């Protein structure tokens, strides 16, 4: 695919520019007499601490949520239907796992510490698994393109069918016309097939450079 070939070249250029910038920064700081090891520590420590704190907070929240769910399950001896809801980056799938006793539900959840869940309408237990991939349906049908407002959008099927799955961010089309190689914008307008998580991330990464607002505020 021409777009993917372009994207690989563009990523290589960006890596080269990033490496060059870091080298200049290190050279300037080294000239000021700051040891390289100390420089690297000053550049990395703050970010590492923030990431560790975020991870710890997330794990604590997950543990508390799972403990609360287990307490609900143990509160009575009711037999429940259990559904596994797989939440993909694109798409969701639900599977009926069958009827479980409270003891079987507790065992199931403890065997999968990464799962979350809830009891639906005081009846069924829904356990949720987050999968960093596209669902089988999305792998067969997903396209990235522009909606009528110029937003980068994920579609179920070809863009002309207007079945929006997810809207990401508005693009600076004028800048794209002058910066991108000929044909890339037209290809996006016609729709770029994304068949796996690598292609999905590749498209987001490439066109994220042309977002009107900072990337991160994604519209579901």
UniProtKB/TrEMBL annotation:
InterPro entries documented for this protein: BofC_C, BofC_C_sf, WH2_dom
What are the WH2 domain coordinates in residue numbering?
A: 65-82
Alphabetical list of PROSITE patterns matching this protein: WH2
The highest taxon in the source lineage is: Bacteria
Instruction: Identify this protein by name.
Output: BofC C-terminal domain-containing protein
Q: Origin organism of this chain? A: Paenibacillus polygoni
Its taxonomic path starts at: Bacteria, Bacillati, Bacillota, Bacilli, Bacillales
């Amino acid at each position: 695919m021409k777009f993917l070939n372009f994207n690989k070249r563009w990523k290589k250029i960006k890596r080269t520019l990033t490496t060059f910038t870091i080298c200049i920064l290190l050279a300037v700081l080294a000239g000021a007499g700051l040891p390289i090891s100390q420089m690297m520590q000053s550049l990395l420590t703050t970010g590492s601490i923030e990431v560790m704190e975020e991870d710890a907070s997330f794990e604590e929240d997950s543990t508390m949520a799972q403990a609360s769910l287990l307490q609900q399950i143990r509160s009575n001896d009711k037999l429940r239907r259990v559904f596994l809801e797989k939440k993909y980056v694109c798409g969701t799938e639900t599977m009926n796992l069958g009827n479980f006793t409270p003891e079987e539900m507790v065992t199931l959840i403890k065997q999968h510490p990464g799962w979350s869940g809830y009891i639906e309408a005081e009846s069924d237990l829904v356990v949720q698994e987050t999968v960093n991939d596209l669902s089988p349906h999305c792998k067969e049908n997903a396209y990235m393109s522009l909606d009528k407002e110029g937003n980068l959008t994920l579609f179920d099927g070809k863009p002309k069918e207007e079945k929006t799955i997810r809207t990401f961010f508005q693009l600076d089309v004028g800048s794209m016309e002058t910066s991108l190689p000929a044909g890339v914008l037209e290809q996006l307008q016609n729709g770029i097939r994304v068949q796996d998580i690598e292609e999905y991330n590749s498209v987001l990464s490439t066109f994220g450079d042309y977002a009107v607002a900072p990337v991160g505020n994604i519209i579901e």
